[in-house]
Structure formats: C-alpha cells, structure tokens
C-alpha cells in the first residue's frame, strides 16, 4: 500500500516506479529527453541496495561520460549514504573495463601494470607502425590508421577477426597487417589503447568461461544509461555479462535510452542495439515514460518540432505540466567574437539578477568554437569550466610528468621512455636513442630492457653511457620507493629528483611559471588517490582537472559532452550551415549524417530547463579563413510561435528570400514588423530620434561605426562577390562593406571576399 512505500519512491510517476520495482528480468526503459529515465535508474540502484537485494560491490552500472557517471554517483549517494562508496563497478564503460582488465591482464599478454595510452600516443604509434612497414606515410597518415583501428575495435574485432574485405579501407589492403603489428607493439610496451579495454575484456570472457561466470554471478544486476549510444563491442560485452550461467538471456539487466538522442553513430554506436533489446533479452519488459519534468513548454515544443523532421525514428509523445515559460530566443550576429561578446553580456546580466554562473551552460558543436568564448569569458572575468575540451592532462608539462610516472609503473612503456629520456637534457642524443631502438627491435624487447643490455656491453661511452645508467637507476629506485610512498609524495619526488622542476625553474620562457603551477596542481591531484595505479587510471580515463566542481563557474562544453545533463540556462551558439549541421557529417554520411546532427540539436535544446538561447553568426573564421555563413536549416525547423528574434537589423548580409529552404529567419530583423521587437534596435532608434521603420544601411552603420581596420574599396566602386555577384559599394566601415548587388540586393559583406570589378 501507499503508506508502506519507501520514501525514495515518493514523487516518481507510475511507470518510473515500475522501472524501479521490476528488479528481476530484463527491462528496457525507452523514453524521450528529460522524462526521468536517469532518475528512475538511480532510484533503482538505491532500491536494490536498501532492500538488501545486492551489495554495493555487486552492482554494475555504466554510462558514457565521466560527468554523467559522477552525477549518477551523487544522486545514488543522496539516497543511500555511505554505501555508495562501495560501488566500485559504477562508471564509464572504459573505467569498468579497465578495472576488469587489470585483474586478468596476463590472459591477453599484459601485466597488471599496463599503461593506458591516449589518442596522441595512439597516433604516434600508428605512425611508427606505418613507417616500419614501409608504407607511404604521406598517403596513409597515422591519424587515418588510428581511425580504422578504432572502428574495428568499436566492432569488437581483433586482427584475425577483421573481414578480409575490410582491409582495403587503408594502405592498399595492408591494414590488417598494420593492425597486427600495432597490437604487437602495444604488447611489448605493456600498453592498451581505449578500444583495447573492451576488446581485451571480450577476449578474456570468451576464452575463460570461469572468469566470465564469476563476473556473471557477481553482477546480478546490471544497469546501463544512454543505451542508444552503445557500440557493438559494448553491446557484446553487456550481452556476455547480462545472460545467465547457461548462456540463456534473461539476466537482470536494465537499460535506458532514447533513440532520438543517439549521437555517436560516427563512432560506431548502433541505435539498432536498443531496437533489438527485446529480441536479445527475452521476456524484456518495455517501459515508456512520456512526461517531461525538465523543460518549460516552449523549450519542449521547440525541441519536439526539430526532431519531428527526422524520418528514421520510433516517435514518441512528450508532454509537460510545467509553465510555458519564456520563448526560445534567436539571435544573428556579425561574427564569432561578437557572438561571444553578446552571450557573455547576457551571462553578466543574468548574474546581476542573481543567477548562479553554474546554472548556465554554453554548448558548442565543435571544440574550435570554444576559443572565442574562453577569450571573452576571460576578458569579462567570468569564471568558467571546460568539460572535455583541450584538457589539463594534454598539456606538455603534464604529459611529461605523467610519462615519468608511467615509466616508473611500467618499465616497458616505450612511448613514455622516448618522451622523457632526454627531457630535461641529459646528454642522451638522438643518435644513441636510434641505436637503442635498433637493439630493442632486434631483441624484441622494450627500450628499458635494451638499455640495460647495452650497459652490459661496451657499446656506449662517455656521456650517453652515464646518462642512460643514471636514468635507468633512477627509474628503478623510484619504482621501489613507490611501494611505500603515497602517490602525491611520489610525484613530487620524481619531479624533483629527475630535474624536471629545476628545468622549468631555469627556463626563461613566458609559460614557465604557468607550467610550474600546473605541476603543483598535478601533485595535488595525485594526493587524492591511495595508489599510483588508481591515479594513473583516473588520469587516462577521467582526464579532467580535478579539484574544481564547477561551482560558481559557467559551463563550456560540446553538445556531445552535455548528453544526459541539464542546466537552467543554455546557450546554443553557431547554428550555421556547415558548422551545425556539420558539413563533414553530411558529406560523409548524407541523410544519415544529417539526421544524427538533428538529434544533436534535439539533445542541445532539451538540456535547458528554463531558458534556451540560440544564435548564429554571419561570418566565421574556420581554420584561419574567413567565410560567410548561412543560418542553420535547424533554425528553420523551429516553431515560429515559440521563438523570439533578438537580432539587430542589418547585422548580417544574408537575405531569406534568396536562400534555399533554410533561411526564414536570416533576414527577419530587416523586416520592420519583426525588428520592432528588438529592444536594442528600439533603443538605438529612439536615441537617434528616428522612426522605428528601419533602413537597413542605417542600422548597420550605427552598430558597426567603430570597427577598426579599413578596406581597399571606395564608395561607388563596382565589385564582385562569389556568392552575390556584381554590385556597387554603398557604405564602408572598416573591413565591412555595404554593397548594393545587382541580383541579390543590399548586403553587408567582408572586404576580403570582394574583388574589384571596375573595368
Ligand atoms: P535525458 O534523456 O536527457 O538523459 P532523463 O530521461 O534521464 O533525460 P532525468 O535527468 O532523469 O531525465 O530527469 C530530468 C529532470 O526531471 C531531473 O531534474 C529530474 O530530477 C526531474 N524528474 C525526473 N522524474 C521526476 C518526477 N517523477 N517528478 C519530478 N521531477 C522529476
Ligand atoms: Mg538521462
């Protein structure tokens, strides 16, 4: 009866309760954004613990991003208290797979001390493999091979399992050989890349039934969030673990997902996994949720409208009890720096009104868009936190320091060895390193082992000999010290004794001070861990600056990283063709790519609880080149009645009528009726004592009059523009030029794109 129901069930709706209480047998929760899937999942975890059905260390709970995993841990912690500490198998697929692999590393030819290499090292290693095989590196770059290998690993394929036809993707059919060579090297280095974590798990489970069965017995309850984004390897992994000892389906696995939020197809995720769940796990109960608890009516309506343009979807109903709320705003601006400025102004205004900065998120399509925001946030003195962006642990000094630690932990880690053998300089020249590599290759051993062997000969003399000896002795000494020292102390010791800190202290470069501070932070981060291994795994897999929780900071991240999260206020900049939808996604995958981009737009809008602000710029610098851009077709897919247009008139040079299908909003601001709603515009007009019926040129001049720089054109010049054709210059402001085009009408364009057409 209701009065007996435990407190943690209160407030859940009936289907959510059903998902929590159906503890036995497979369960699929399939529902749209913000319907409380994750909440039901975390309550289910709590229920299993509180009702005594499972111990914390017997629950397997996986999700995709580190931030989502952390939030899940927090949410469960609120319900169960200290027990959450014991949930070691809760995390990302990668982190759980790494834990399993550490226990059984010997079975795939590694030791428990193996290193997890990151994308950078992966590409370096690919390059080495390509050049060692005599394959043309110009035609077949390391990055390309890394992509091919990732794709295979995402499908759970080992070299011997790759279909022969697939080999022709790369290096004229030699790709499988390169894959084999790459894996051999990794094994010599005692290392694994991200993809290996799962593939090695699969190998172990398939070869050692006893081990698999032990894990099956342990993980009596399995929970997966964001199931729509699992790739084949992850799917196979879950299937192996989620079936019973006799291999029958029907384990207690509960997966949660939304086909409309599948955004990792480009990385090998398969939406089909969610569609075939009922087949694979027989007797699965399917639970649908329809009430959205996250967003206002306007936001939900905007999101629903966008996603309704996708053909390939299951389709579902979503409704909300919440207020309709403020309209979704839409703003066009001149260029990316201005977009950043306008958004930061709004953030400051919101802060003045009492909004906490950590309530606000800026979600971009591509990480290159972040720079403009970081600069502006810095200038404005607004603290911010980048999630999953260019990361602390990817910086030179942190990578160097980590290379030391990895080598201490794993003497065979050649990638780390070659990174630091001469950093700081110890008179160990390139020639000696080449010599050492040759010996290593001949011996089939690592650089450390080859070094030790060389020292037993007379091959090396003088400085190189003493440098190598000292280096190897140091590493060995730190290794034995590692047993007794806490990670923080060890990091400090290594950095001091290796001379690495002294090296930056002596450095005259401008960045040296910052680097020293980062090294200090690294020591601090290590102090939070009990073992060096725990710390290094954290760095490889979690890899974000620790210590700051985002409290009082604006969030800045990509749309992909924002999956599963929510914020009261969300800014979605850069809604322009080619940026979003990404031109590359469409080029590579056509309609399928476009639909995935649209799901990403749906994910973006549905992150917002109260306010959602969309913007686009008329000009953008991509890879250092200016180009003019068109508003995203997704803007055209927004329901007009939910949108408030805030653009300043005439700020961008695109006119709706001439553009293909998507452009309705491009020139809205030039329409007197619509621009009437623009507060900035009204203020400006009033200040000038002008009527509110705007003249396009006037408005443009008004806004841009202070722009520095100059154009090589003069009033009345005849000019040619790639997109708009011939026209005559009617006004000039810095690098921006107003042109009356013969066909396209009045436009504002960048001088760089204009050619003089005077005969
Ligand atoms: P997404 O698809 O984006 O991952 P989701 O379905 O996982 O969304 P949640 O994050 O679990 O949704 O929930 C969205 C918001 O709604 C959260 O703030 C959550 O606390 C709230 N919520 C969920 N269920 C309820 C409920 N029954 N009553 C009130 N609020 C709820
Ligand atoms: Mg969720």
From TrEMBL:
Gene3D superfamilies: 1.10.10.160, P-loop containing nucleotide triphosphate hydrolases (3.40.50.300), PCRA, domain 4 (1.10.486.10). Residues 297-564 form the UvrD-like helicase C-terminal domain. Signal peptide: none annotated. Keywords: ATP-binding, DNA-binding, Helicase, Hydrolase, Isomerase, Nucleotide-binding. The keyword Nucleotide-binding applies. It is an enzyme of class 5 (isomerase). ATP binds at residues 31-38. One of its GO terms (biological process) is recombinational repair. Belongs to the helicase family. UvrD subfamily. This is DNA 3'-5' helicase. It comes from Parvularcula bermudensis (strain ATCC BAA-594 / HTCC2503 / KCTC 12087).
